[in-house]
Amino acid sequence: xxxxxxxxxxxxxxxxxxxxxxxxxxxxxxxxxxxxxxxxxxxxxxxxxxxxxxxxxxxxxxxxxxxxxxxxxxxxxxxxxxxxxx
Length: 86
Hints:
Elements: H1 2-9, H2 22-37, H3 49-62, E1 65-67, H4 71-77, E2 82-84
Parallel strand pairs: 1-2
């Protein structure tokens, strides 16, 4: 964790400028760990999925609804998430 915060500090002037929801960071980490541990070909896994896990975690912790076309994936990763799917 210290390494990540050290890297973030290169981009900001004050620690207060880093708005981090610790609960969302933890939930995203848990979702990423489950995603990486799931069976399937490792080389076929999309790194593009990782930002979505962070977005879903932030929405859960903040109590927000999420508008997405990929409702199935978000429902699988975040069962408590309130999803709007057009």
